Here is the input.
Amino acid sequence: NAGVTQTPKFQVLKTGQSMTLQCAQDMNHEYMSWYRQDPGMGLRLIHYSVGAGITDQGEVPNGYNVSRSTTEDFPLRLLSAAPSQTSVYFCASSYSTSGKNIQYFGAGTRLSVL
Amino acid sequence: RKEVEQDPGPFNVPEGATVAFNCTYSNSASQSFFWYRQDCRKEPKLLMSVYSSGNEDGRFTAQLNRASQYISLLIRDSKLSDSATYLCVVNSFQKLVFGTGTRLLVSP
Here is the structure.
């Protein structure tokens, strides 16, 4: 059972390049989300999905797109990378039990935009 | 004001010490509460949920005070392996809001 798998682990981009961060989970969770983590800021929600075909914006969605064509996959696309998008990106999947949303995180993608 | 606030620390304690972290949240409609642990350059992992009645898991005790809107985590008999950043997390309308974390350093 792999849990949540993110690729790549590290990436360096030039300003203006585009790329896709991959996220896959094998736990059949309906809820998936993307966060970015910056020093002193905590984790901030970028986009989330409550099931296949349904996505919504989080706190900091600008510059990012997502899609959810299957339950397992939730890729994050950077349309035109900017230095402000240098960050650590975490994908998470979750299930609800007794009204609680329990999240499992991938190992993260460390992105630098030059 | 941040929705979830924590003292960033670091808290430097010797092995065997008892240490407590507090966290405050601003949304009184928040529904559930958690402590996550994050090791350096790793992903956050669930440490424990927090219940109104208080709950304990080994050396860890979590408390919730809804009236004052704060959450606490107590660690007894600290181990070197407890060194990490502890994230206070609040669930509001199916979204998790994370505090910036409190860093704990346990020394021999």
In short: The interface with chain A takes residues 4, 8, 31-32, 34, 41-46, 49, 87, 91, 94-96, 98-101 of chain B (CB under 8 Å). Chain B has a mean pLDDT of 93. Chain B is about 0% helix and 55% strand.
